[in-house]
Design the sequence.
């Protein structure tokens, strides 16, 4: 199955069927529980299904080498679906942490709960209710992702390897998320020379490994990858994941709201201490760094102030440096699988997927 839409459709069908079961199970618990579950199901709509597609690609690279006529097992679709549900959980919590108002052009979960509280004329302060409900929504989605994973792994010969990889992914994402919020506060007491290394560590744990490398390894583990195949896919996935997150950081500063679904410069308003920012500050004199530090993280940044920060990033060479690293990462990934014992046709699809992930505009 090399048609990307076929993979997306298969994963979406598995998610939809699971969501329908969750709706049915919530029915006896009353209207409030039903609305909560419906909100959780709503977060699963749309998206590029990137992690599921990398998981499928990892399975194909190993499974198709052993059997060119192999068809995708049900377990693969459950693991792919589990990744997408976990991604929804991460986005709900991420929007809450970042105090974001929108997600994919719609109100972020905590804002939607806040609005629902107001519309229903419930007692108390709507904003804390929205935040609390969003925490629980993310927790429910994490539980759902585990349900899907465990359903797929029942009786599977490689269940232990898949569980180990999935557990590591969950730990890494959580550590990365903490380091991300810590850096927004801790940067002021750390040496400027260390900021880039710290930003790269956050990027690796929070997004790069989780978005590309670990989904690839999950699919490969499900197909029974040996140590050499595991190492090759890891060496491919890690630089592609770095390039993917760098592209995400660029879009967070320069992206078009009409395609990203989030306001232009949103990462600047949220004060994200990304590699772009670290490189920008490295290239500036003390006065320029003070300007960046004073503006970064101000939720009320005006369009002119955002333009000023964008200009500083460009003039410092940080944007060009990021594009160069993306190209370097792509070359490193290609070398990693050049002579690897992986299915040649699956690698064609994997390369195309990696290119799409690192050159996207949304």
Sequence:
């Amino acid at each position: 199955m090399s048609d990307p839409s076929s993979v997306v459709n298969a994963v979406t069908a598995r998610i939809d069927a699971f969501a329908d079961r969750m709706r049915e199970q919530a029915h006896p618990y009353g209207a409030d529980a039903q609305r909560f579950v419906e909100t959780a199901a709503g977060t699963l709509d749309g998206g590029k299904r990137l992690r599921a597609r990398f998981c499928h690609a990892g399975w194909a690279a190993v499974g198709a080498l052993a059997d060119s006529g192999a068809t995708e097992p049900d377990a693969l679709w459950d693991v792919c679906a589990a990744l997408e549900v976990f991604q929804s959980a991460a986005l709900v919590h991420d929007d809450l942490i970042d105090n974001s108002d929108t997600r994919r052009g719609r109100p972020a979960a905590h804002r939607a709960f806040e609005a629902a509280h107001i519309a229903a004329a419930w007692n108390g302060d709507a904003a804390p209710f929205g935040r609390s409900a969003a925490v629980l929504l993310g927790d429910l989605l994490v539980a759902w992702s585990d349900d899907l994973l465990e359903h797929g792994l029942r009786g599977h010969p490689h269940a232990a390897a898949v569980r180990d990889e999935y557990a590591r992914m969950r730990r890494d994402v959580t550590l990365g998320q903490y380091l991300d919020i810590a850096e927004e506060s801790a940067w002021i007491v750390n040496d400027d020379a260390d900021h880039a290394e710290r930003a790269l560590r956050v990027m690796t744990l929070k997004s790069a490994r989780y978005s590309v490398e670990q989904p690839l390894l999950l699919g490969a583990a499900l197909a029974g990858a040996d140590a050499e195949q595991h190492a090759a896919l890891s060496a491919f996935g890690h630089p592609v994941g770095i390039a993917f997150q760098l592209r995400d950081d660029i879009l967070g500063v320069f992206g078009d709201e009409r395609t990203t679904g989030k306001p232009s410069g949103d990462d600047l308003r949220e004060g994200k201490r990304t590699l772009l920012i670290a490189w920008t500050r490295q290239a500036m004199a003390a006065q320029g760094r003070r300007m960046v530090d004073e503006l970064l993280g101000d939720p009320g940044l005006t369009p002119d102030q955002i333009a000023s920060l964008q200009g500083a990033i460009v003039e410092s060479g940080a944007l060009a440096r990021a594009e160069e690293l993306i190209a370097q990462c792509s070359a490193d990934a290609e070398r990693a699988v050049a002579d690897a014992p992986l299915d040649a046709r699956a690698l064609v699809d994997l390369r195309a997927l990696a290119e799409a992930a690192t050159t996207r505009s949304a």
Q: What stands out?
A: The chain has a mean pLDDT of 94. The longest strand covers residues 102-103. The beta strands are 102-103, 106-107.
